[in-house]
């Protein structure tokens, strides 16, 4: 795969000029009467103008043609994207999906997005959507943007080559990327490709606070990578597809949207390689809560409570003494959606497969399957590697999630036998002291 150049950092003020046009960024001001090279200046605001400085996000793009040069939007109907959370009756059961299919007809990244579950209201900018994408052709003369929120994209199979207004990036399985609200992008693939998307409405991802961990650890800011400016000057018909209030719309313009010659700001797309995650865990006893594995969080207004956390279960050493080492049995006031990028998840080595998913809804009991419980209650507690060449992840939310019709029925992937993995958990009670 091609290697592109990147800028490093999280939340930084970046600036980038396509080397073919040096000094394309205006000096000392954002909106000169005439921009260098005859470019148009355009601001992209990712927060309210008046958001506190610590949260304020915006970038300035200097482009060949302004984004406004397009015809009116029309509905784009070929889509399984939904934000109608009343399509099927709520169901608190533990849910597991077999790996989602690659498409049988030609589908590009936008056409291949299917919503599994979610909650909230894009118009109120509160809530989230969880989607799988499954595609077999590249987007051609077509760009996509989301006016509802940010996309955190988790490839499971196939490398993505993503062209954005800010430049190009490649994202392969075990890497993730975030394309924020409004940013136009095009996805090229080289084989049938599949992955997961966490969409958060109206808020942005941040790095979790580290508290007593100190200044370093978990996902380090320097490992986040943002593309560099790279323009194309193409006068051809382009379709711009917008996700707006839960529906897709398309409009036509006569020039490439990837015509940004220089840009600066702190509102940017970025990628991160999950291998760079610095794992912190118990080195004495007991199983820590999985929040220790939070890569990115999208916080609600309630302190410490996430609209969505992106949590991974990375390869690591397990050393805890006199401890049941796998995840504990659990009922949670949060919703837990899990996916598997590769390998096996330690709490369930059978049934939960790469490209599949599970959903454990609010207060629904879940935890290790029978085999895992039996094995881990008996095993000798030597230091050992867990999750080697494995990567699973969780989207955890304080909100209640509803499954869509696609998730419950159309996909035909719901495994109605999931509950059986806990059948046979024996009664081991030894009775009161005699
Ligand atoms: O349900 C799960 O498998 C996720 C999870 C993992 C863990 O290590 C502890 C708690 C938890 O909910
Ligand atoms: Fe859990």
UniProtKB/TrEMBL annotation:
Region (Disordered): 11-32
Keyword Oxidoreductase: yes
Active site per the UniProt annotation: 287 (proton acceptor)
Single GO biological process annotation from the record: L-tyrosine catabolic process
Keywords, comma-separated and alphabetical: Dioxygenase, Iron, Metal-binding, Oxidoreductase, Phenylalanine catabolism, Tyrosine catabolism
One annotated Gene Ontology cellular component of this protein: cytoplasm
Record domain Homogentisate 1,2-dioxygenase N-terminal: where: 5-274
Catalytic activity from the UniProt record: homogentisate + O2 = 4-maleylacetoacetate + H(+)
Taxonomy, superkingdom: Eukaryota
Family matches, as InterPro entries: HgmA_C (IPR046451), HgmA_N (IPR046452), Homogentis_dOase (IPR005708), RmlC-like_jellyroll (IPR014710), RmlC_Cupin_sf (IPR011051)
Cofactor(s) for this UniProt protein: Fe cation
EC numbers for this chain: 1.13.11.5
Binding, homogentisate: 345, 366
Residues in Homogentisate 1,2-dioxygenase C-terminal domain copies: 276-429
Molecular-function GO terms, alphabetical: homogentisate 1,2-dioxygenase activity; metal ion binding
CDD domains: cupin_HGO_N (cd07000)
SUPFAM superfamilies given in the database record: RmlC-like cupins
Family listed: Belongs to the homogentisate dioxygenase family.
Protein name: Homogentisate 1,2-dioxygenase
Lineage: Eukaryota, Metazoa, Ecdysozoa, Arthropoda, Hexapoda
């Amino acid at each position: 795969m091609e290697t592109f150049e990147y800028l490093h950092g999280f939340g930084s003020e970046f600036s980038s000029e396509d080397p073919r046009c040096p000094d394309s960024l205006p000096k000392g001001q954002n909106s000169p009467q005439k921009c260098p090279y005859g470019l148009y200046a355009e601001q992209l605001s990712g927060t309210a103008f008046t958001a506190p400085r610590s949260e304020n996000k915006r970038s300035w793009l200097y482009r060949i043609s302004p984004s406004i040069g397009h015809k009116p939007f029309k509905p784009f109907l070929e889509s399984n994207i939904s934000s109608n959370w009343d399509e099927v009756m709520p169901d608190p059961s533990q849910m597991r999906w077999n790996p989602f299919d690659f498409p049988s007809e030609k589908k590009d990244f936008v056409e291949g997005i299917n919503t599994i579950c979610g909650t909230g209201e894009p118009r109120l900018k509160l809530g989230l959507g969880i989607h799988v994408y499954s595609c077999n052709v590249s987007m051609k003369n077509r760009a996509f943007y989301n006016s509802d929120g940010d996309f955190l994209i988790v490839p499971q199979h196939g490398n993505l080559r993503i062209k954005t207004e800010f430049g190009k990036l490649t994202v392969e399985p075990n890497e993730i990327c975030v394309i924020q609200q409004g940013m136009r992008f095009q996805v090229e693939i080289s084989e049938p490709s599949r992955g997961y998307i966490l969409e958060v409405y109206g808020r942005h991802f941040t790095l979790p606070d580290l508290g007593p961990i100190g200044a370093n650890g978990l996902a380090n800011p320097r490992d986040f990578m943002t593309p560099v400016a790279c323009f194309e000057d193409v006068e051809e018909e382009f379709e711009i597809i917008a996700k707006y209030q839960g529906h897709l719309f398309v409009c036509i313009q006569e020039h490439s949207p990837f015509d940004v010659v220089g840009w600066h700001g702190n509102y940017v797309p970025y990628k991160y390689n999950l291998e760079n995650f610095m794992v912190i865990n118990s080195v004495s006893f007991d199983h820590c809560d999985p929040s220790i594995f939070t890569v990115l969080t999208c916080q609600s207004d309630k302190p410490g409570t996430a609209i969505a956390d992106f949590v991974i279960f990375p390869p690591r050493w397990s050393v805890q003494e006199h401890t049941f080492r796998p995840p504990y049995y659990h009922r949670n006031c949060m919703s837990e959606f899990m996916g598997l990028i590769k390998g096996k998840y330690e709490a369930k080595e059978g049934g939960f497969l790469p490209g599949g998913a599970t959903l454990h809804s609010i207060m629904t009991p879940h935890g290790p399957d029978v085999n895992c419980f039996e094995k881990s209650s008996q095993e000798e507690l030597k230091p050992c590697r867990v999750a080697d060449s494995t990567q699973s992840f969780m989207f955890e939310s304080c909100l209640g999630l509803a499954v869509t019709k696609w998730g419950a029925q159309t996909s035909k992937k719901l495994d109605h036998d999931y509950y059986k993995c806990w059948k046979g958990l024996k009664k081991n009670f030894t009775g009161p002291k005699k």
